[in-house]
Amino acid sequence: MDTSESNSDSEYSVENEGTEASSGEGNSSDDDVPKLADDEYKEMPFEDLLQLQKKLGSRVYNEAIFGKTKERKQNPKVKPKPVKKSKHASDAESDDDSGPEEMSAKRKVPALGRAKAGKNTSITQPRDPRFDPRQGYFSGRQFRNNYSFINDVRSKELRKLKNKLEVATDPEETEGLKFLIQRTENQIREYAKQKALDKSKLHEKQQARLAVQEGKRPFYERKSTKQARALVEQYDKLKDDGSLAKHIDKRRKKVSAKDRKKLDFST
């Protein structure tokens, strides 16, 4: 009885030693760093954990706390995050594979400046009425008819300036008054000239309109004939006023100055 019990005990001890040795070898090969128990590191203060991480290193510390990376990879609950491809890598791959990118020809290219203007259509753009066809076209005859009172104001100012010139004694003031008087007289003269031209053009249009209404062919005077007739009328007017000699002398000086300038440029 004693021999059988001793034999069984010896066999049991040998089997236990073999299993312990085999399990020890497997653990040594699989887990080089022993994993701490949950109760151990949960009860440790945070300062001791930081000191332990500094001593062991971040890799060994993580393996001791969370286990080896193989165990985490084998865990089916933890899913690996998908790796996002960078734009530079995709561009490089597309360039290497298929060459340059081809743009679609169906897309219409916007005109210059229209693409930006389409986005801000609610904003009112400033416009210049002088060059806007929605404001109509400029008519000198209509303008002079609407603002004919300006000529009356100029004539009143001319009378005041002449009265000041009679009283003035300072030579600089008299020169300034003479300049203003000359300029105002030129403006009044030009206004009268434009009014006469407007009257003649209106008369010509009325004659052409009457000829069309009567079924006749309208007559349009040549530009050269108009200029010759205007010169004759100007000559008659200057002769009646007695300023013909003054006008001819002024015209002669103007022509001689032009000829002198031409000679200076030629030399």
Q: Which key features would you list for this structure?
A:
mainly alpha, 12 helices, elongated, 267 residues, single chain, 0% strand, 71% helix
| Ends distance | 155 Å
Q: Helix share of residues?
A: over 70%
Number of helices: 12
Work out the number of β strands. Answer: 0
Taking the sheet with the most strands, its summary is: none
Beta fraction of the residues?
A: under 5%
C-alpha-based Rg, rounded: 56 Å
Low-pLDDT sequence parts: 1-31
Give me the strand/helix succession: HHHHHHHHHHHH
Mean pLDDT level: 76
Quickly give the structural class: mainly alpha
| Global shape | elongated
- Multimeric state: single chain
Verbal overview:
The protein is mainly alpha-helical. The protein has twelve helices and no strands. It has helices spanning 2-30, 38-43, 46-56, 58-66, 69-74, 87-98, 114-119, 140-146, 149-167, 171-213, 223-241, 244-266. Helix 3 packs across helix 4 (58-66) and helix 9 (149-167) runs antiparallel to helix 10. It is elongated.
